[in-house]
Amino acid sequence: MILPIRAYGDTVLRKKAHDISPDYPELKELIDNMFETMNAAHGIGLAAPQIGLDIRLFIVDVTPLADDEDYEDIADELKDFKKVFINARILEESGNEWKFNEGCLSIPDVREDVSRKETILIEYFDENFVKHTETFSDIRARVIQHEYDHIEGVLFTDKLSPLKKKIIKGKLTKITSGDIHVGYKMRFPK
């Protein structure tokens, strides 16, 4: 089932999410719905707060990037990179910071350069509640960091300079008021 994505301004996007247990109600169905919702919106990541749930759950699927010539040197790593992250904790961020033009399904039509570290060490449970501690780099680390921020109540726009925030303020106001048209299901703040 395709769920509505919460738009910028919704208070759930600012909440620090809480852990869940393996007996979380209908978890498999929720994860399936999140993938269906993300795919319908042509995204590569989606966090539970974006569908109105303040739980530490997010998904990523960067397989569409495997065919992008910008990533041909890591295409093999990307083609099967579809993961579920439950109760994730980033343990370490390392390497150089690099800028990349990010967007967000909750903040449509806004894209800005954001600096992030190139490598992360993250601990998480997968959809079967098997614990993993893994290191990720490149675009995979960036997508994970972006989605991880969502479960911490942080948006990519928070990482922008005061000048950039001022420039996009009008766009954010339009999103909050629902004065925007997107090609996917959204729920705007009341």
TrEMBL record:
Its cofactor is Fe(2+). The active site is at E147. The keyword Hydrolase applies. It holds the Pfam family Pep_deformylase. The keyword Iron applies. InterPro entries: Peptide_deformylase (IPR023635), Peptide_deformylase_sf (IPR036821). Gene3D superfamilies: Peptide deformylase. One of its GO terms (biological process) is translation. Its EC number is 3.5.1.88. Fe cation binds at C104, H146, H150. GO terms for molecular function: metal ion binding; peptide deformylase activity. Binds 1 Fe(2+) ion. Keywords: Hydrolase, Iron, Metal-binding, Protein biosynthesis. It catalyses: N-terminal N-formyl-L-methionyl-[peptide] + H2O = N-terminal L-methionyl-[peptide] + formate. Removes the formyl group from the N-terminal Met of newly synthesized proteins. Requires at least a dipeptide for an efficient rate of reaction. N-terminal L-methionine is a prerequisite for activity but the enzyme has broad specificity at other positions. Belongs to the polypeptide deformylase family. This is Peptide deformylase. It comes from Cloacibacterium normanense.
